Amino acid sequence: MKKKRQTPRPGPEPHTTEKHQLAPEVEMADHTMETFTVTYPARMPTEEQIQFGTLTAAHHKLVNESELIKSPFNPTRADVGELDQRVCITPHKAWYSMRKYVNFVMRAASPQHVYALISWLYWPEELPPPAKRSLDQVSPKGGKCQYHGAQELVASNYLDILDVLIFAGKADVVEWDEAGDYISAGERKYYWRQTFCRQTQALSKIREHCVCLGPCTPEIQMYICDNPDCKLWLHKICMLEYTLSEALKNLDPEVDTDAEILKKNHRANKPLYSGILAGKTEDKDDGPPKIIIHDLRREHKKSWQEWLKCPACKTKIE
């Protein structure tokens, strides 16, 4: 959602209780200055406690002064209702005395004072770092991962109350469920596929692809297996490594399994073909992708082409 930046928006913070200053002070109809604030009480009872009536007096007060906000984001790989939460909006009386609209979470004190309760989407680099650094984390100071795309946003359950007059326009942001055909980065606009939960300070799970069970990085092209019973999304590097590993087994003359280079590669945790074979993929508009393989052995130097194949079902990639 695009808006004119008048005050810094609240960012994710690793706290159990947060209080965000949400909207610039505005003059109400009676000429008093009002500022709305959303708080996330740490001792808020669960919905189960509310449903079964096991509440303390303090809990009753919190429930009476709070509102259950259903998240507009329903990610396919997050728990149902994970982003739903009870929040307190103050001043309570001023907020709930305003007229409520049905289609949006909006309230109005007058035609000149209309407010919207919104949920933020963040750029990945705006997120805080996880408690334990992950291998694909771009920087120790932020939550962006290597698989996050240039046009990718992360949905959250951080809330804000904004005067509708500060909105400059709208940005179309769609959920990408990573199902069906692969869409290249150039064909995709703003999108989100993960959520960031305020309570857990964690990203939702990312969908796993390929034989490596890695995520899709939109700026790096992927292929889809043509086998209708497979349809696996494949990383180019994984197909390249598979093809070179298979070519190593079929070399003529074959490589001695006791060769020192194989032992060195194994000890160094390198692919066994390292230093023996090298390959580069070749994509042409008028044909399927292929790999050019080079035999690096001094006495057997040669090059040839092979089809790229799905490592899972061995189907040629057309």
TrEMBL record:
Coiled coil: none annotated. Residues 79-207 form the BAH domain. PROSITE patterns: BAH. InterPro entries: BAH_dom, BAH_sf. GO terms for molecular function: chromatin binding. It comes from the Eukaryota. This is BAH domain-containing protein. It comes from Hymenoscyphus albidus. The lineage of its organism: Eukaryota, Fungi, Dikarya, Ascomycota, Pezizomycotina.
